[in-house]
Input
Amino acid sequence: MSAASQPAAAYLGITQVDKAYGAAVVLDGVDLAVDKGEFIALLGPSGCGKTTLLRIIAGLVQPDGGTVILAGKDVTRLPPHRRNIGVVFQNYALFPHLTVAENVGFGLAVRRVARADRAPRVAEALRLVQMEDYAARRISALSGGQQQRVALARALAFAPSLLLLDEPLAALDRKLRESVQVELRQLIRRLGITTVFVTHDQEEALILADRIGVMNQGRLEQLAAPRELYAKPRSRFVLDFVGRSCLIAGRVVGTAEGLVSVDTAHGRIQAPGSFMSGAAVEIGLRPEALRLGRGSDGGMNSITATVTDRIFLGSRLVMTLAAGPGERLLAELDAADAEAASGETVTLSWPAVDTLVFPAGAAG
Ligand SMILES: Nc1ncnc2c1ncn2[C@@H]1O[C@H](COP(=O)(O)OP(=O)(O)OP(=O)(O)O)[C@@H](O)[C@H]1O
Ligand SMILES: [Mg+2]
Output
């Protein structure tokens, strides 16, 4: 293969990274390619390996196999202080008995920045996070949000090639968290620093990230832009983990012209895709795809279901419905045209193109 036909090398390239603790496999062949300046969120349930992957990138944990490339250099065997990576952990790991400025300066001292150069860099980092007036304060005299900024300043002070953030907002209350999310995003975008951000809050991932990687049991299930992840989840796990959804069980009767036909307890449903006839599948639906009534135009699926509950969200209304035993549907409708009452049986319809189909029982 000529060099020209090779894809451009990623700024951060993780290839086939494995990690086990004894018999427990924590990371299983993880590949991740991050472009320069990109903001990636890693999302996944507790224990799926997010922190372990971050620690491997930072050099705090050695992988059993695989490589980590940063800015064209194989850093897999380099100690943390030689990787030029800024890290902010969930608990910030600040020294409570030191001042704000001393905490930020500490990271520079560890990296052997000359003493005379430290003070201006500390001041600059504190200015970035708007904490310059607090330089002489002790950490123990700061609020959670202020501590978060100091931890960020410490990670930014040595102009890192990469920023790793492990649930840096987890300790903040909801309101503060929402304002800090936006600030953090703007600051990082302005500085153009390549960032990998771990969270288990999907809303936070959707708000902040250029692309989201969804992890499940030590594997990266999908890496995609938020919109694509939501609209085209590659697995039932991703469908379920990101956003609200519902499922209908069925069996494939055939595939024609890019549409797979699935027989369900509620009639035939069509979806884009291709499956073997006879395959057990699950139809996945996003609540906002559903409409009340039988669609008049072609290419629509429909189903009847009984309204079980209605939740008003201002202009929108979320309706829960029972389709069959154990099959609960969710429809997000315009409140204005959702008159059906609880107990009423209604017809719901949605475009075949907005229908997802997955192999049954492959939730992972
Ligand atoms: N040093 C260790 N020794 C043994 N097991 C470990 C060690 N570190 C992590 N694990 C295990 O590896 C798995 C993944 O841990 P990790 O901290 O990466 O998860 P996580 O996705 O960050 O979870 P959370 O969202 O709860 O922070 C867990 O089952 C954890 O118990
Ligand atoms: Mg973690």
Summary: The two ends are 36 Å apart (CA to CA). The chain has two domains: 9-239, 244-359.
